[in-house]
Design a protein that fits this description.
The protein is about 35% helix and about 25% strand. The protein contains eleven helices and 18 strands. The strands form five sheets. The protein has a six-stranded mixed sheet with strand order 1-2-6-3-7-17, sandwiched between helices. The protein has a four-stranded antiparallel sheet with strand order 12-13-9-14, with helices on one face. A hairpin with a 3-residue loop joins strand 10 and strand 11. It starts with a helix and ends with a helix. The model has no long low-confidence stretch (mean pLDDT about 95).
Amino acid sequence: MEVKRLKQVAKDNQKSLVNFLRDIVRIPSLSGQEEKVALRVKEEMEKAGFDEVFTDGIGNVIGRIGSGKVRILYDAHMDTVDIGDRKNWKHDPFGAEYKSGTIYGRGACDDKAGVASAVYGGKLMAALGLKGDYTLYVACSVEEESAGGKGIEYLIEENRLKPHFVVLAEPSSLNIIRGHKGKVGLKISMRGKSAHAGTPWRGINAIYRMAPLIQKIERLNNRLPSAPPLGKGTITVTKIDCEKASLNAIPDNCTIYLDRRTNTKESEQSVKRELRALMGKGGKLEILQKFFTAWELPREHPLVISCVETYKVLFKRNPKIFLWPFCSNGSYTMGEKGIPTIVFGPGEERFAHSADEQVKVEQLVQAAMFYAVLPGIIVKRYRKT
């Protein structure tokens, strides 16, 4: 495959790639509300020259290229988080402003940039006639932000894709991510006794009951054990709530919400044990979502080596290879199913979920080229193992 020709075809498609990303950024697509953006994605896939394009029962849009033995899945999610307070945005979150080589807006980085580049990776493959003994599925999935893994789980279980390798097109600054921490969301509730705020001694303030536990959780974060290669887990309180509390009454309930990041040595059971030990007999502990498993793919794995080779062929330099503190659909594909997975995509992680969300067009184009070349290199490497 001639890299010079690929770069020229990528350059020729840059304008349409930019326009496609701007189109889908303009379409709000909170988790569970991806229908309109899915229609636009399907339309673009059909124009791109995929061998097959279909929408599955949960709303994922899937494009297929080839029908070879090695099955490769590219996944990028179409849903986004909410915009928060619009006053914090310098650019219209749904304006898809394009200025000085950068596109701004909600989802421009996380993860519609990945959607656009993955689709155009397929388009470049079709335009250049790149073929091999592989079947590539480009999946634009639903409900990653709210129910991490629901869309991709449906892809693999219900559509029976059964990939040999998975590439997650999440914003990684075009670095190769070979593993990341796990995650679990938790909720702890304390009960009290309501009374008039003018006579607080007649009640039991649920906030005061919760306060010592919050301090214990802060101290727990500092002493969580470290385990290579992901290091130390983390725990932090992200929200405090007193349901239906009045401003002139002692609250009879207090709830805190926790974000717990885990390493490969920690489990749902160990997380529960450590919190129940802090709580003692008071309070109620609940898991808000399923436990997302930490995972690591060894540096010497054929998928990592294939990604490094692809990067060097295209960009004539060595890539950066990292482990992430974040979480992705990899908790399902690699953490639960054991399918070799890496994360590689356009966009800087620091802009994800921010009110200054953006992506550089240069990274969009580079990612599309990477996605176009990688399957052929994976097949060559796979045959050697």
